[in-house]
Inverse folding.
C-alpha cells in the first residue's frame, strides 16, 4: 500500500538539452489506478521508469509513502514492473520466472512454490508452470509477466504498455482483467499507455502528458467533459473532438454560414482577452446530421459505418478561409448520406468548448 | 522410366551443372590427396633408403600406436587446444564485459584489442619468442626482474606453456568478439526486469547474462578448437617442438616425421589417425552447437 508523489521531478537524457520529463508533479493516492497517457515522445514511459528506478531523477524528487526515492536502487523500492515486451527470463521456466523475485528475497523453496502456484491459479497459468517462455503464446506471456509482478505483492505496480503486443480482442479482454485484478489486490498502480481508450477505461485518474509536460491530471469524465486545453481535447475521445478555428461575433462564433451561439461567460472571456477568433471544439456526438439549411452546410468526404452507428466526415462548404475545415459527426442512422452529398450538421446538446487560438488554453468553464 | 522424368533429369543436370567445377576442384584438392595418404599409409617407405618401398598393410598404424612419442604428442595437442580455448574464453569474456561499457574512445580500444587476431601467426609467434620471452632482452623477464624472478628461460623451461601463451594472446580477441556480439544482443529490458525484481549486479550476471552468453561461448570454444587442431606456425617458430617432443603437437610431429625423418609411410598413417580423430570430435562438437542454436531459434 503506497502513496506516490512526483515533486517537480525531471529527467534529462544524456546529450540532450530538453528534459524528457519536465518538472512533473503528481500526487497518487493509496490504491489508486493512475494512467499516464500521451503521444510517443511525451515522456510517459520515462516518468514511469523514474518511479521504477530505471532512469535517474535529475531534478526534483519522487516519494513513495513519504520516503525520498532519489538514489534508491530499483531493488530496494518494492516495485513490480510489467514491460511492454514482457521481458521474461528466456532461460527460466514460467515458475522460475514468477518466483525469481521471491528467490532474490531469500524465500524458502516450498513457500516460493506455494505463492507461485496461487498466482498461477489466479491467472490460469497452472498448466504452463514448467514451460519456457518461448513455448508460450503472446497472451500467455503477457499473463506470466503479470504473474511475475503480482507474486511479489509489491507496494506499487508499474506497467509500461503491457497490452500493446496483444491483438485487439485479447487487449480488450485483458484490459478488464487487469483493472479487476488491481481492484482486488488494491495495490497502487501506475500504468503507461498511448491508447486513450485504455486510459479512459482503466484509470481512476488519468495524467495526460505532452513533450514531457503534464497537461492535465483528472478523472476520465473530467478529461472528457472539460479538457484544459486544445491538446487534451483533441487527444481524449475517439474519434477526436472537432477543433475548428472560427471568427468571434457578438452572439458566438461564425461557423460556415451560421453562427454557433456560445455561453455568456465564454463570450465575456473572449472579449476580455480581445480575441477576434477562437478555437472551438465539438465532440462528434454533439453534432447531428440534418437536411441542408438546418445547420452548417457540409459536403460528405467519408462515411465510416460501424454497425451500431456511423461517423460522417465532411468539410464546410461555405468556408471563405483557404483550407476548408473538416468536421466529424456521429450518426445513428445507417444511411446518413452519400459521398459528395451536401448535408448539414446541427449542434445537438452539451456545451461548446472554446480554446484560446494561440495558447490553446480553455476559456471559461 | 517415363519421358517426363528423363526431361526433369536433364533439367536437373542443367541446374546443377554450374556447380560441377567447384565440386571437382574440391575433390581434387581434398579427397585425392587423402586417398593418396591412405595408400601411402600402407607402405613401408622411407625416402632415405631408396628401393625400400613395400606394402605392409596396416602395420604402420600398429607402429604409430606403439610409439610412446606419438601418445605424448597427442596428449600435448589435447592440452594445447583445451588450455588455449578455455583460458582465452575466460579472458575474452572478461574483456568483452569491459568493452561493453560506454567510455570515450571505445571504438579505438575495440580495434586495438582485436589486432592480435589479425597479425600473421608466424609473426606473432616470433614476437612472443623474442620480444616477450627472450631470457636476455625479453619483456616478461624485464617486468619480473624487480620481483626477483627475472632469470627464467621461458621457452626452454616451459615450452608448451610458452606456445600456449602465444596462442591465448591470439585467440582471446576472437572469443572477445563473439562474446561481445552476444552481450550486445542481450535485451536490456530483461536485465531491467531483473533489477526491479531485486537482483544485484552479480546475480544478474550469473542468472541472466551468462545463460544468454552460453551459446556464444560454446560457438567460440568449438570454432577455436577446430582451428587450433591445425596449429603449426607457433610451434615451428617458438620451440620446433622441443625439447624432445615436449611441445610438439600432432601436425608438427607429422611434419617432422615426413619432411625431416622422410618416413612417408608412418607420417601418412599418423595423418590418417589425426584426420579421423578430428572429424569425430568436430562432428560431436558441431552437433552440440547446432542443437543449442536450433533450441534458441525456437526461443527467438
Amino acid at each position: 500500500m503506497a502513496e506516490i508523489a512526483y515533486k517537480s521531478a525531471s529527467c534529462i537524457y544524456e546529450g540532450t538539452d530538453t528534459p524528457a520529463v519536465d518538472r512533473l508533479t503528481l500526487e497518487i493516492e493509496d490504491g489508486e489506478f493512475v494512467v499516464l497517457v500521451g503521444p510517443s515522445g511525451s515522456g510517459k514511459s520515462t516518468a514511469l521508469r523514474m518511479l521504477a528506478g530505471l532512469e535517474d531523477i535529475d531534478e526534483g524528487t519522487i516519494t513513495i509513502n513519504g520516503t525520498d526515492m532519489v538514489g534508491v536502487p530499483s531493488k530496494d523500492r518494492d516495485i513490480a514492473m510489467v514491460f511492454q515486451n514482457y521481458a521474461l527470463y528466456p532461460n527460466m521456466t514460467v515458475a522460475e520466472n514468477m518466483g525469481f523475485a521471491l528467490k532474490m528475497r531469500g524465500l524458502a523453496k516450498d513457500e516460493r512454490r506455494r505463492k507461485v502456484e496461487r498466482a498461477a491459479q489466479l491467472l490460469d497459468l497452472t498448466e504452463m508452470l514448467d514451460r519456457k517462455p518461448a513455448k508460450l503464446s503472446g497472451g500467455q506471456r503477457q499473463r506470466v509477466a503479470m504473474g511475475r509482478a503480482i507474486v511479489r505483492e509489491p507496494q506499487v505496480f508499474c506497467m509500461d504498455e503491457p497490452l500493446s503486443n496483444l491483438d485487439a480482442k485479447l487487449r480488450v479482454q485483458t484490459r478488464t482483467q487487469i483493472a479487476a485484478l488491481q481492484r482486488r489486490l488494491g495495490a497502487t498502480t501506475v500504468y503507461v499507455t498511448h491508447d486513450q481508450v485504455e486510459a479512459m477505461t482503466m484509470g481512476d485518474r488519468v495524467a495526460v502528458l505532452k513533450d514531457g509536460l503534464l497537461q492535465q491530471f483528472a478523472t476520465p469524465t473530467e478529461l472528457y467533459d472539460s479538457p484544459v486545453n486544445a491538446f487534451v481535447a483533441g487527444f481524449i475521445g475517439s474519434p477526436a473532438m472537432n477543433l475548428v478555428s472560427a471568427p468571434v461575433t457578438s452572439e458566438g462564433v461564425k461557423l460556415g454560414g451560421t453562427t454557433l451561439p456560445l455561453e455568456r461567460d465564454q463570450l465575456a472571456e473572449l472579449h476580455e482577452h480581445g480575441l477576434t477568433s477562437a478555437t472551438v471544439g465539438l465532440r462528434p456526438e454533439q453534432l447531428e446530421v440534418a437536411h441542408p439549411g438546418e445547420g452548417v452546410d457540409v459536403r460528405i468526404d467519408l462515411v465510416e459505418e460501424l454497425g451500431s452507428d456511423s461517423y460522417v466526415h465532411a468539410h464546410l462548404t461555405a468556408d471563405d478561409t483557404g483550407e476548408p475545415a473538416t468536421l466529424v459527426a456521429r450518426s445513428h442512422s445507417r444511411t446518413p448520406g452519400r459521398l459528395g452529398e451536401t448535408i448539414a450538421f446541427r449542434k445537438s446538446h452539451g456545451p461548446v468548448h472554446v480554446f484560446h487560438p494561440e495558447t490553446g488554453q480553455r476559456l471559461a468553464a | 522410366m517415363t519421358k517426363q522424368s528423363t526431361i526433369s533429369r536433364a533439367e536437373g543436370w542443367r541446374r546443377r551443372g554450374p556447380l560441377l567445377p567447384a565440386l571437382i576442384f574440391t575433390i581434387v584438392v581434398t579427397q585425392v590427396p587423402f586417398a593418396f595418404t591412405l595408400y601411402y599409409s600402407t607402405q613401408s617407405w622411407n625416402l632415405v633408403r631408396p628401393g625400400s618401398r613395400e606394402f605392409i598393410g596396416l602395420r604402420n598404424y600398429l607402429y604409430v600406436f606403439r610409439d610412446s612419442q606419438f601418445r605424448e604428442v597427442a596428449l600435448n595437442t589435447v592440452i594445447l587446444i583445451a588450455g588455449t580455448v578455455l583460458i582465452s574464453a575466460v579472458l575474452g569474456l572478461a574483456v568483452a564485459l569491459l568493452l561493453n561499457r560506454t567510455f570515450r574512445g571505445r571504438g579505438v580500444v575495440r580495434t586495438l584489442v582485436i589486432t592480435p587476431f589479425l597479425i600473421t601467426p608466424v609473426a606473432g609467434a616470433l614476437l612472443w619468442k623474442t620480444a616477450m620471452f627472450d631470457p636476455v632482452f625479453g619483456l616478461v623477464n624485464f617486468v619480473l626482474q624487480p620481483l626477483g624472478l627475472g632469470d627464467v628461460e621461458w621457452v626452454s623451461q616451459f615450452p608448451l606453456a610458452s606456445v600456449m601463451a602465444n596462442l591465448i594472446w591470439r585467440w582471446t580477441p576472437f572469443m572477445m568478439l563473439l562474446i561481445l556480439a552476444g552481450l550486445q544482443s542481450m535485451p536490456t529490458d530483461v536485465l531491467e526486469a531483473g533489477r526491479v525484481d531485486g537482483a544485484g549486479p552479480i546475480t544478474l550476471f550469473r542468472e541472466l547474462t551468462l545463460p544468454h552468453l552460453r551459446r556464444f561461448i560454446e560457438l567460440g570454444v568449438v570454432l577455436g578448437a577446430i582451428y587450433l587442431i591445425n596449429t603449426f606456425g607457433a610451434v615451428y617458430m617458438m620451440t620446433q617442438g622441443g625439447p624432445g617432443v615436449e611441445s610438439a603437437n600432432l601436425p608438427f610431429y607429422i611434419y617432422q616425421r615426413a619432411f625431416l625423418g622422410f618416413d612417408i609411410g608412418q607420417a601418412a598413417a599418423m595423418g590418417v589417425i589425426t584426420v579421423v580423430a578430428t572429424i569425430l570430435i568436430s562432428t560431436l562438437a558441431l552437433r552440440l552447437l547446432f542443437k543449442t542454436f536450433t533450441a534458441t531459434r525456437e526461443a527467438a
In short: The longest helix of chain A spans residues 168-185. Residues 239-355 of chain A form a domain with the OB fold (Dihydrolipoamide Acetyltransferase, E2P) fold (CATH 2.40.50.140).
